[in-house]
Specification:
The structure is a single chain. By secondary structure, this protein is α/β, with parallel strands linked by helices. 34% of the residues lie in helices and 25% in strands. The protein has a single domain, classed as Rossmann fold (3-Layer(aba) Sandwich), CATH 3.40.50.150. The protein has a seven-stranded mixed sheet with strand order 5-4-3-9-10-12-11. Helix 5 links the parallel strand 3 and strand 4. The chain is globular. The relative contact order is 0.11.
Length: 273
């Protein structure tokens, strides 16, 4: 059972008060210095009501300190698609923004995150909110199981990729959705979110049974031309795979990432369209 928002344990009052003070500090330079000193104790409250640790592990955490939304349109679509009892699979969960959102909506969550340091923060955020029906998997998701090199970005752990050219890398396990969900006894998924820094096509290739099941999930997938290029792919490769499985797709949010197109696509099975 998911813990209702009113019953979730909140961080200590002094953590919350300190965090509000830092977030409201008027000088940008002064706030930067305060963040550096106080980061071990800072927390942010997301618009969905969940709490997150804030230390700058990933750049987005500083926006969470201010209670900001992330990808508003995508967030609203997720809210419209999930309800108590739904099953949500979060591939590329990062520190847990959408995992926490889904859990506050009463969904059962299975979240995959390969970067060890980011996974540790994801686990910490789930524990911070006393969430019970969330399964966390410290693995990459691909088209076949194995052990892969995850290239570590010098800029932000959010950009770590299986297809980067950074000199630093770590070995991480990889699973397929079909195999891993089956091993967990999960026979259907209501919503599948994929943000895998260029590996999205491979994630779909490892989820054929799921996508062709009698109750196929709605899919929200990031289509990032820059990260796809690193994998030798392009946006049409993701869309073609969805179409091959009978999905209809539409862009719901878009922007520019490192000079290239980046957007979120909502794909709906023909049976639900």
């Amino acid at each position: 059972m998911n813990t209702p928002p009113s019953r979730r344990a909140a961080p200590p009052l002094w953590n919350r008060a300190l965090s509000r003070f830092v977030a409201a500090y008027p000088s940008i330079r002064g706030q930067t210095r305060l963040r550096r000193v106080t980061s071990p104790w800072l927390v942010g409250r997301l618009p969905c009501g969940a709490w997150t640790r804030v230390s700058g592990l990933v750049d987005a955490e500083w926006t969470f300190l201010r209670g900001a939304h992330k990808e508003d349109i995508t967030e609203n679509r997720i809210k419209s698609l999930l309800h108590p009892g739904s099953v949500f699979v979060d591939v590329g969960a990062n520190v847990g923004y959408f995992t926490l959102l889904a859990s506050t909506l009463g969904a059962r969550v299975i979240a995959y995150e390969p970067t060890p340091s980011v996974f540790a923060r994801l686990k910490e955020n789930v524990a911070l909110n006393n969430l019970e029906d969330v399964q966390l998997v410290n693995s990459a998701v691909m088209d076949k199981p194995g052990v892969l090199s995850l290239h570590i970005s010098a800029d932000d752990p959010e950009a770590n990729s299986l297809f980067g050219n950074e000199s630093q890398s770590v070995q991480v396990p990889a699973v397929t959705l079909d195999d891993d969900l089956n091993a967990r006894g999960i026979d259907h998924v209501d919503l599948l979110k994929i943000d895998a820094e260029g590996a999205e096509s491979f994630v779909l290739d490892g989820a054929t049974r799921l996508l062709t099941s009698p109750r196929p999930p709605v899919v929200i997938v990031e289509v990032n031309a820059f990260t796809l290029n690193s994998a030798g792919l392009q946006p049409s490769d993701i869309l073609a795979r969805l179409e091959a499985h009978g999905y209809r797709h539409t862009e719901i949010e878009s922007g520019i990432y490192k000079g290239s197109y980046c957007g979120n696509v909502l794909a709906t099975p023909a049976s639900l369209a």
